[in-house]
TrEMBL record:
Membrane topology: Multi-pass membrane protein
Organism the protein comes from: Apis cerana
Keyword terms, alphabetized: Endoplasmic reticulum, Membrane, Transmembrane, Transmembrane helix
Keyword Magnesium (UniProt): no
The keyword Transmembrane helix is annotated on this UniProt entry: yes
Protein name: Protein RFT1 homolog
GO cellular component: endoplasmic reticulum membrane
Spans traversing the lipid bilayer: 12-35, 41-60, 81-104, 116-139, 151-170, 176-198
Family: Belongs to the RFT1 family.
Xref: InterPro entries: RFT1 (IPR007594)
Compartments, record wording: Endoplasmic reticulum membrane
Signal peptide stretch: none
GO terms for biological process, alphabetical: dolichol-linked oligosaccharide biosynthetic process; glycolipid translocation
Purpose of the protein: Intramembrane glycolipid transporter that operates in the biosynthetic pathway of dolichol-linked oligosaccharides, the glycan precursors employed in protein asparagine (N)-glycosylation. The sequential addition of sugars to dolichol pyrophosphate produces dolichol-linked oligosaccharides containing fourteen sugars, including two GlcNAcs, nine mannoses and three glucoses. Once assembled, the oligosaccharide is transferred from the lipid to nascent proteins by oligosaccharyltransferases.
Length: 210
């Protein structure tokens, strides 16, 4: 058992390093692409306002539960853990409403924001709610060391977000925030759906073997 945990930890560290390098590379290329085709103002709105909004909602809604539920997993009553984790969805909904209002009404600016900014804010908020709908299976994957699953799904999600975002920018550069919002929603739907589909297949396979 200890050897399996050690092996999985080493795999996790290796895959995380590769994944972080991939993320940085994709982010750099996307930033260069946005600056070239849209401009620095839109890039600033995406990186500073919208991604900060996503980070705030996910951090405050998810991280306290993840930290609490991933400690001493052997002694967990998983039925109670699952019931507790469903609380993250309404909490995320409230956080999304609160921060969405702050981003749109409180954080005012003298400069004119790009078109579809309001749509992008609510798209990011909705994508956070969709992503947290699969938090239970994400936690199970982390607790039971499904290392490759996380890395593969995260990588595919980045690819889907990029493949969705880039053609929309090329087709209509002035609606960059519309493209960003759509890409966020598509990626979140994929991420949540793929987690449930994988564990549906995995449980079905275990039942058939037993």
């Amino acid at each position: 058992m200890s050897q399996n945990i050690l092996k999985s930890s080493l795999e996790n560290a290796s895959f995380n390093i590769i994944f972080q390098i991939l993320c940085r590379g994709v982010t750099f290329v996307l930033n260069a692409f946005v600056v070239r085709h849209v401009g620095q103002a839109v890039l600033g709105v995406i990186n500073v306002r919208l991604l900060l909004l996503e980070s705030m909602i996910l951090f405050l809604s998810r991280e306290p539960f993840m930290k609490a539920c991933l400690t001493n997993t052997i002694e967990h009553n998983w039925a109670q853990v699952v019931n507790l984790l469903w609380m993250t969805v309404p909490i995320c909904f409230l956080m999304s409403l609160m921060f969405g209002y702050i981003w749109l009404s409180v954080l005012s600016t003298s400069e004119t924001l790009p078109s579809y900014y309001t749509f992008a804010v609510w798209a990011v908020a909705l994508s956070c709610i969709i992503e947290l709908s699969s938090l239970i299976v994400q936690l199970v994957a982390s607790a039971f060391l499904f290392v490759r699953l996380k890395i593969i799904l995260d990588t595919i999600m980045i690819a889907i977000r990029t493949v969705t975002f880039v053609p929309l920018i090329l087709h209509n550069p002035e609606n960059a925030l519309l493209a960003f919002g759509i890409a966020q929603l598509v990626a979140a739907v994929f991420y949540t759906t793929s987690h449930y589909l994988y564990f549906h297949y995995y449980i079905k396979k275990l039942i058939s073997v037993s």
